[in-house]
Amino acid sequence: MRRRKRLGVLVGAVGAAGFFGLMIVIVWQVAATWRARMPAAREGQYKELATRYARLLEDTVELQRRTVEEQRQTLDELTRTRLAVGSMEKMMREIE
Q1: What share of the chain has pLDDT > 70, as a percent?
Q2: CA-to-CA separations, 16 to 11, 23, 66, in angstroms, rounded
Q3: Statement: residue 2 has pLDDT above 70
Q4: CA 30 → CA 33, 35, 91, distances in Å?
């Protein structure tokens, strides 16, 4: 009888150790899977940021191009105005 009791305790201990071993492996694998997915999620975020940055850079370059063109037009208008004012001053001196 004692032998059966010891055998039962031994089987119970081995079963419990097996169960806890299995639980440790499952938790370990879930954690490993979670850790593996984190960099993939970050990579997606980095790609999105890179796409946004590229779009922003394109918009900035276009805005800069427009600004340069507007400055060129303003300079041309200013040059024509100076020429016109210079001509008017010359005419005013000649009239006097």
Answers
A1: 96
A2: 8, 10, 75
A3: no
A4: 5, 9, 91
pTM value > 0.70: no
Per-position DSSP letters for 36-78, written without gaps between them:
HHHHHHHHHHHHHHHHHHHHHHHHHHHHHHHHHHHHHHHHHHH
Q: Closest Cα to residue 88, out of 96, 77, 72?
A: 96
User: Using CA atoms, how far apart are residues 12 and 4, in angstroms rounded to an integer?
Assistant: 12
Answer whether residue 37 shows pLDDT above 90.
Answer: no
Distance separating the N- and C-terminal Cα atoms of the chain: 140
Share of the chain above pLDDT 90, in %: 57
